[in-house]
């Protein structure tokens, strides 16, 4: 029984996340949901012992999103910034979603 | 155990930490990229004004006087050079100037 | 015990982030308000151990629970906003959900709030969106029965 509790606790400790922020851009073109295609891009940064010197992965997420919709408007861009927690290391993640209108 | 936790706390606050990020809608027409940043050095965590952030709008707009800046990516970072003693807060904004 | 129950029933609301978007008006359109809210349960292992310790009146079990929580918390290092959660994708369907609320896509006045309803041990990690869907005014026709 104790082993089971211990295992559960370690599992809870090992896959924990923290969502810092969710931001959503405006919908300025007033297009219907069915008019476009949903696109998504995610990049992450592995941090060991807290040593990290840049935030370029954010720009990479944006580049990856634009690459999926090069000649269109991307509306309602939802940006999620979160961290997957770990043992003396963690992953900072940026996830971007949007509606590609061509 | 307490020393390990204290050390891990120090490591967590060191170097670059991103406080927030936002991306506005991205236009189909992508003009030249305009980018600007504002920053403030903070010693011993003493900070009495955040007015430096207000400049960012004008600084970005001045690079695109005859058009509109769209698809703006804004990052708010905190760079720690020495925990508690000295750190910098930086706001970066980057977008497309469409004329 | 009563004091503990009183503490357990307490909650606090923390605002982590707020955002306001563009506000548009259109002629012959009405603004229909909508609201969406998603929440995920956060768990603080350290607080869980403290509560377990308080309930067991300081016996050995309390000590071992606290040590265990300290070990588990070592696997939860990194920058945190609120209490740790176990599903980071809970807010990913929000954008699509907005379109379901407003299929025309004529959305304005978006207010987005990232907040936490904090209780001892657990929390509600909330993301809330409020906005307006612009809809065309419908003309009322008074048909007279002849």
Largest sheet of chain B, in brief, is: 4 strands, antiparallel
Our estimate of the beta-strand percent of chain A is: 35-45%
Number of helices of chain A: 2
* CA(first)-CA(last) distance of chain A: 58 Å
Structural class of chain A: alpha+beta
Uncertain stretches of chain A? none
Average pLDDT reading of chain B: 88
Largest beta sheet: strand ordering of chain B: 1-3-4-2
Q: Would you count the extended β strands of chain A for me?
A: 4
Spans of chain B with pLDDT under 50 lasting ≥5 residues? Answer: none
| Biggest sheet: strand arrangement of chain A | 1-3-4-2
Describe the 3D structure.
The complex is a heterotrimer of chains A (102), B (99) and C (146). Chain A is α+β, with helices and mostly antiparallel strands and 102 residues long. Chain A contains 2 helices and 4 strands. In chain A, a hairpin with a 4-residue loop joins strand 3 and strand 4. Chain A is elongated and about 55 Å long. The model of chain A has no long low-confidence stretch (mean pLDDT 87). Chain B has 99 residues and is of the alpha+beta class. A 4-stranded antiparallel β-sheet of chain B has the order 1-3-4-2. Chain B is elongated. Chain B is 19% helix and 49% strand. Chain C is an alpha+beta fold and 146 residues long. Chain C has a 4-stranded antiparallel β-sheet. In chain C, strand 3 and strand 4 form a beta hairpin. Chain C starts with a helix and ends in a 10-residue tail after the last strand. In chain C, 29% of the residues are buried. The chains are: A alpha+beta (102), B alpha+beta (99), C alpha+beta (146). Chains in contact: A-B, A-C, B-C. Chains A and C meet through helix 1, strand 1, strand 3 and strand 4 of A and strand 1, helix 3, helix 4, strand 3 and strand 4 of C.
Structure, briefly:
The complex is a heterotrimer of chains A (102), B (99) and C (146). Chain A is α+β, with helices and mostly antiparallel strands and 102 residues long. Chain A has helices at 2-14, 56-67, and strands spanning 17-24, 37-48, 73-84, 89-101.
């Amino acid at each position: 029984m104790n082993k089971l509790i211990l295992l559960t606790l370690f599992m809870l400790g090992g896959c924990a996340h923290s969502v810092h922020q969710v931001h959503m851009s405006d919908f300025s073109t007033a297009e219907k949901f069915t008019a476009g295609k949903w696109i998504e891009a995610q990049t992450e940064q592995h941090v060991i012992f807290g040593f990290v010197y840049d935030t370029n992965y954010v720009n990479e997420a944006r580049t990856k999103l634009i690459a999926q919709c090069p000649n269109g408007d991307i509306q309602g861009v939802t940006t999620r910034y979160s961290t997957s927690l770990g043992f003396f290391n963690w992953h900072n993640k940026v996830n971007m979603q949007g509606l590609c209108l061509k | 155990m307490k020393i390990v936790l204290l050390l891990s706390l120090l490591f967590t606050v060191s170097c670059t930490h991103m406080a927030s990020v936002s991306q506005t809608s991205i236009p189909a027409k992508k003009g030249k990229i305009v980018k600007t940043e504002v920053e403030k050095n903070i010693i011993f965590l003493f900070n009495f004004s955040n007015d430096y952030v207000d400049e960012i709008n004008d600084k970005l707009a001045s690079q695109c006087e005859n058009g509109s800046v769209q698809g703006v990516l804004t990052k708010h970072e905190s760079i720690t050079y020495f925990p508690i003693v000295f750190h910098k807060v930086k706001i970066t904004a980057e977008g497309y100037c469409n004329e | 015990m009563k004091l503990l129950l009183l503490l357990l029933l307490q909650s606090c609301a923390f605002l982590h982030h707020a955002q306001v978007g563009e506000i548009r008006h259109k002629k012959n359109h009405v603004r229909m308000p909508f609201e969406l809210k998603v929440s995920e349960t956060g768990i603080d292992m350290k607080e869980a151990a403290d509560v377990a310790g308080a309930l067991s009146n300081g016996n050995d079990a309390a000590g071992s629970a606290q040590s265990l929580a300290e070990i588990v918390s070592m696997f939860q290092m990194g920058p945190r906003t609120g209490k740790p959660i176990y599903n980071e994708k809970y807010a990913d369907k929000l954008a699509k959900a907005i379109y379901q609320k407003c299929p025309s896509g004529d959305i304005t006045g978006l207010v987005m709030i990232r907040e936490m309803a904090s209780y001892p041990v657990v929390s509600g990690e909330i993301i809330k969106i409020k906005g307006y869907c612009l809809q065309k005014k419908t003309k009322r026709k008074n048909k007279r029965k002849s």
